[in-house]
Amino acid sequence: MKKFRLFTPGPCAVPEEVLIEMARPFHHHRTDWFKGYMKQATEKLKQVLCTKNDVIIITGSGTAAAEAGIVGCNPPGSKLLTMEAGKFGERWGEIAQQYGINVIRQKVEWGTAPTAEMVADFLKKDPAITAVMVVHSETSTATACDLKAIGKVTSGAGKLLLADCITSAGALPLKPDEWGVDVAITGAQKSLMLPPGLGFLAVSDRAWGVIENNKGQHAYYLNLTKARKMAKENDTPFTPAHLLIRGLVKALEILLEEGIENVWKRVAAMAAGTRAAGEAIGLKVFSKSPSDSVTALCPPAGIAVKDLRNELEKRYGIESAGGQDQLKGKIFRIGHMGYIDDMDTLLAIGALEQCLYKLGHKFNIGAGVTAAQKVFAERL
């Protein structure tokens, strides 16, 4: 018997209670029944995202939410700075270009994080910049930046800050209001423990001022002004993925019952344990500023990432992720988001050891599991 185990950095494992909730009979979406779920989902999202700002629910992935934020917050005459340290940072620059937004696309070495000093330097050199977009947790490189420090710089300079928090919200400490994040973006299929299909934006009053006075090109479907108007009535301007919103309420209840700060600590321990395990069996951690939501490890010499991932899935049902673009074949990634805990992580580490050993890597079997156990024991 082989069980299916999801350790990709999205989509992530979903609790059975959430899946069952979404399988129950349902009503039409233009009803008080649906509006009740929307109200609950919005209120609970604010708690999980640690914000008092308006939260908008978009039917679509995190990319849809990001596109809505980028287009809405960059009217004619604006200038956007995108800090691009990976595949997803690059995506936001590409979206801005496609809409004709005046954008400065700053490349940052993959595996390193954009810093507050970098942002401050750009804002000093070019006061015409009106908004900055960064990725809090760059999934493609498993790298996290200091969003709090960057927010201090942008707030001090009076610039909007848009943050891709798709793999940080619900996994890493995130306090948009306190840190000066004007638009915090995330998606359903990561730490919020749902299948793909919903995107979320926590939007500050300052950002709304820009969005609602934007006289330029607007997205039709991803129009935040329309979404905000309907959200005030606990509704959506277009057909919602209403069963996902129903499941979202249940998933958020689970997270809030654990306590969001306890979730952050659990995810941090799983990540630290995985990094320690990798180093103990001779695998280098790729990122210079590792994210806790996903770990990127470099395979040992002579072992192909494809072979290792195939072995993990074939023998143990474990789905991991490889590298993207320039990192293809150079790293493999293990996620720490969704419905997983310390024991799940130990299982994945043990499976990784077995597969590496079979593929010819020489190390002391059990060293990785032992290293992770020590990390987890310190958390007790």
Query: What strand line-up does the widest sheet have?
Result: 2-10-9-8-5-3-4
Largest sheet: 7 strands, mixed
CATH architecture classification of the largest domain: 3-Layer(aba) Sandwich
Helix-residue proportion: 40-55%
Q: Quick check: average pLDDT?
A: 97
Backbone structural class: alpha/beta
Taking the alpha carbons of the first and last residues, their distance comes to: 33 Å
CATH class group of the largest domain: Alpha Beta
Q: Spans with pLDDT under 50 lasting ≥5 residues?
A: none
Shape, principal axes of CA atoms: globular
* Count of the separate structural domains: 2
Order of helices and strands: EHHEHEHEHEEEHEHEEHHHHEEHEEEHH
Using the CA coordinates, give the radius of gyration: 21 Å
Instruction: Note the beta-strand portion.
Output: 15-25%
Structural notes for this entry:
- The protein is of the alpha/beta class.
- The chain has two domains: 5-9 and 259-379, Aspartate Aminotransferase, domain 1, CATH 3.90.1150.10; 16-257, Aspartate Aminotransferase, domain 2, CATH 3.40.640.
- It has 14 helices and 15 strands.
- A seven-stranded mixed beta sheet has the order 2-10-9-8-5-3-4, sandwiched between helices. A four-stranded antiparallel beta sheet has the order 11-12-15-14, covered by helices on one side.
- It starts with a strand and ends with a helix.
- The mean pLDDT is 97.
